[in-house]
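Ex. 9. Protein: ParB/RepB/Spo0J family partition protein.
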Amino acid sequence: MENSSKTKKMTGLGRGLGALLQDSEKISAPRTNARLSPTDVIGSMNEIDVSQIEANPYQPRTKFDQESLQELADSIRVQGIIQPITVRQLTDDSYQLISGERRLQASRLVGMTSIPAYIRTANDQQMLEMALIENIQRENLNSIEIALSYQRLILECNLKQEELGVRVGKNRTTVNNYIRLLKLPPVIQAALRDNKISMGHARAIITINSDQSQLKIFNKIIEEGWSVRKVEDEVRKLGMMSSISFAAKKQATINQEIKSLQFQLSSFFGAKVSVKSNNDHKGEIKIPFTSQDELKKILETLKFK
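Predicted structure tokens for ParB/RepB/Spo0J family partition protein:
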């Protein structure tokens, strides 16, 4: 009874994982490097050889801070593994990591040959979801890693942004803001990934429609150390200039169309026709004549008797 009680406590690793992990009646009682029998209970803690554990292919984190990793290794050397990692069993002697990448790497730095682990059942979609949620909730992923992970969940797990928001505890707007970062030029994405610019910088830049203008602002941030406020101000000015430029181009187009119409009417009537129009598309057409014969010709052209 006591062991059963402890097993139950061990299975609840956290809300995010608990919601995704499905208990099975066909997995393992505590043992070391042994295939789980059908009578074993899932969620029990096992000592597993670190050499038998392969990386999680769905791990969204691509870079780990080496100083932080070394600090964790020093802690493990003194205190041991306080929180077991979580894996799924692939074969009799191979496992795949679900969560606990930093703990596993730090254990290898220390030289540990085995590590305590919970064994779970999970399909590929659950692996991806768990890896993402585990990292977002417990680690500091950079913005690009989060954006890529969100995108993978949407594309590979067929989730809508609203559904994804529920899974990771974010609203739809936040999810969308991250995914939009992937539309930035690669050099800006890399700078955001490497913490050369902040999320605030990136969110301001993404509102600019032109890649060339985005890169121009980005270079100012890097070369002159522009603050987020400075970038936002420059983006607003650029937006106003774009609006003025658009209005000017629109008016030029209208003027050209009027000139073309004026030429066609002049040719049609055989007289110098004047066409005027304002921004509200209101105006007038004048067909001048200097004699009775010219008026008669215009009326005949209009078939007006």
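Check your answer against this statement. Residues 1-122 form a domain with the Conserved hypothetical protein from pyrococcus furiosus pfu- 392566-001, ParB domain fold (CATH 3.90.1530.30).
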